Amino acid sequence: MHDEQPSERGAWVVLGGVHLLNRTAPRRPDEPIVLVRVPPQEVCRPATTVIVRWNALGPCPAEALHLGGTRLGAVRIDGGELFPDAIAGPALRGLVGTEAAPGLVPLCYLAEHPGGGYHAYAQIRFHPEDACFVRTTREPVGHGPVEELRWLGPVLAAHAESSTALNNHLRYFRKHFSGTELEFKYTLDPAPDIWSASMELLKALRDGKLEDCRPEYREEFQIHHTENYLFDVTGPEPEIGYASFIPTVTAGHVLKRKWFTEDAFARREELTLGLDITPDCFETFLREDLSLQVRAMPPFQRVRYDIQCESMRTGHVYGIFLDRCALLAAPEVVLSQCELEYLRSRSILDHDQDEVLLEMKRIDHWLCEYLASHGWATEHTFYSKRSFLRDAIALRPDLATP
Questions:
Q1: 180-399 maps to which CATH number?
Q2: Which of 357, 348, 342, 334 is nearest to 189 (CA)?
Q3: Which superkingdom is the protein from (predicted)?
Q4: Of 92, 113, 115, 114, nearest in space to 102 by CA
Q5: Within 10 A of 260 (CB to CB), how many other CB atoms are there?
Q6: What is the pTM assigned to this prediction?
Q7: Nearest-CA neighbor of 307 among 175, 216, 388, 245?
Q8: Strands 59-66, 49-53: pairing kind
Q9: What confidence category does residue 348 fall into, taking pLDDT thresholds of 50, 70 and 90?
Q10: CA count, 13 A, side-chain hemisphere, 312
Q11: Residues 17-61: pLDDT tens digits?
């Protein structure tokens, strides 16, 4: 349930020296903090992730204060002029001075809480066009007027406590269900052109058609075009599933292993990277090095478009994949699918794993209605590539790989 809807209560983008985030220098009482009053930017409340797009802010009141509380001045700045080229623009330079301006960055997004105090969202990505913030406060901090900066100490302390996660180059903080793939599958029949279908679905997410969710910040879309060499693992009993070799762009192959006796929502999964072996050695490697009983399946070409969907409420990121597999030896034999898969979680705050499952069900319900409305699919089908290839061979024994 939603606690509340966005309203016109106070929200600010707080600017300060980058050393306050990376802790390369101590705080000084004479350095400036800039409070830029902005329209509330949360997609939902409570929120975990907030995206601020500078050009969308319009004219914003900005006030500069020393850390000690002395007021330096105030000015009105259009959001698009705050950080051209990710460097403080002329109005900000005039406000804080030429010495402080070069190191000025967004520190956090600050949202006023109805009961008093503020929630803070730490800046993790910053570009000339926008910035991404994630919530670091479990409870409101710093009761009192925002200009008194009572919230600043707790906010910087919370950032320091999680600095390894907040300052690393990926900003993906955790992955629940490690070693397990969670996914819903739909067989698309009749199969659409997956490129145009992907673009239409991506636009629906951008437009907010899926409540509380948006495309993942600056990672919204990926293209995969690979060949796959899949082996049905028939034994020993604990190893039943499949092994698939996927060539990489540079050299070598990735080995993907999945374990299961039946196609299902949750399956054990493992990747082995950088295998320097050629296709003629795949079966030997599986039999002799891994001691598996295997049967080669027909190689296939896989074209997949990945839409990365992030929950602004929880920070969990899900992939919605549109996937087309065609046999290399028989291109007319095709499997087209849509998959919903849990990928990772951006939040640094603890979340119950069950929350992922509940949210996946909600997104899956929306996706099911979306696919049905386009006439592509009306129900789940946990139909794996392994099952597809087995069925293809049953219908066309000539496709069986010697």
A1: 2.40.320.10
A2: 334
A3: Bacteria
A4: 92
A5: 18
A6: 0.90
A7: 216
A8: unpaired
A9: confident
A10: 24
A11: 999 999 888 888 889 999 999 999 999 988 999 999 999 999 999
- What does each C-alpha distance from 332 to 191, 192, 196, 400 come to in angstroms? 13, 15, 20, 16
Query: Which 3 state secondary structure label does DSSP give 135?
Result: strand
CA 390/CA 247 separation, integer angstroms: 22
- Within the chain, all domains assigned CATH 2.40.320.10 are found at 180-399
State the DSSP code for 251: S
Tokens of 322: 């549109």
Q: Would you say 297 and 234 are in contact if contact means Cβ atoms under 8 Å apart?
A: no
For the chain, the distance separating the N- and C-terminal CA atoms, rounded to the nearest angstrom, is 56
Contact call for residues 361 and 167 (beta carbons, < 8 A): no
Q: Which helix (H) or strand (E) is 324 found in, with range?
A: strand 316-327
CB burial string 222-236: b at 16+ within 10 A, e below: eeeeeebbbbbbeee
What strands, in cross-sheet order, belong to the sheet with 118-126?
49-53, 130-135, 118-126, 104-112, 11-17, 32-37, 59-66, 71-78
Tokens, residue 294: 């295997």
Nearest to 392 by CA among 193, 266, 232, 279: 232
pLDDT digits (tens, 9 = 90+) for 281-313: 999 999 999 999 999 999 999 999 999 999 999
DSSP 308-321: EEEETTT-EEEEEE
- Region of 317 please: left (phi>0), alpha (psi -120 to 50) or beta: beta
**CA-wise closest residue to 112 among 1, 6, 2:** 6
Tell me the residue length of the chain: 402
142-186 residue pLDDT tens: 999 999 999 999 999 999 999 888 988 877 778 888 888 899 999
Peptide bond into 236 cis (omega under 30): yes
**In Å, how far from its chain's centre is CA 264?**
24
Closest CA to 136 of 150, 147, 116, 152: 152
CA distances from 227 to 162, 187, 305 (A): 40, 20, 15
- The pair of structure tokens assigned to 92 is 């900000």
